Amino acid sequence: MILTTTNTIEGFKITEYKGIVTGTSSELKTKFSFKSDKNMKIIEDLMNEAKEQAFQKLKTNAINLNANAVVGISVDIETAAGSYFFVSVTGTAVSVA
What we know:
By secondary structure, this protein is of the alpha+beta class. The chain has one helix at 37-64, and strands spanning 2-3, 14-28, 69-80, 84-96.
């Protein structure tokens, strides 16, 4: 599965557009003091885990459409109520050859 933020893939031709796919994930932020490097690392790890989960869901949704690539990917990270952050990944599932 090829994943890219660009709308084309060098060396490949898009043969079919399958549709828009998304992947979302959320994590609970615990109340850490951001003055500590250790606490910053914990938050960073949680965000990376949420992002990875969102990308896995994106890939699964693309595979379900029989796509072998996702182009034009955008990543959005939002916070809510100061306790949660949400990661949303969106792109266009395509077949490339």
